[in-house]
Amino acid sequence: MNIDQRLEALTQTVELLAAMQVDNEKRWEKRWAEISTALQQDGEHIRALVRVAELHHERLSRLEDQSRG
Description:
- This protein is mainly alpha-helical.
- It is about 95% helix and about 0% strand.
- It has one helix and no strands.
- The protein is rod-shaped, with a radius of gyration of 30 Å.
- The mean pLDDT is about 95.
């Protein structure tokens, strides 16, 4: 293998690595967007559950007060 062949092989390797890096970055950005959306939805669900728990607590407190009085 002469120097020109080696340089050509090296060039192809670098081009392949660059293409792989671009592909990996696109996949990472897509996955991060999916994770971000899922985390946002989880937060909304948790807030809704907290509100349900608060309402139940208030109802139980009222029922306890009624049974005492």
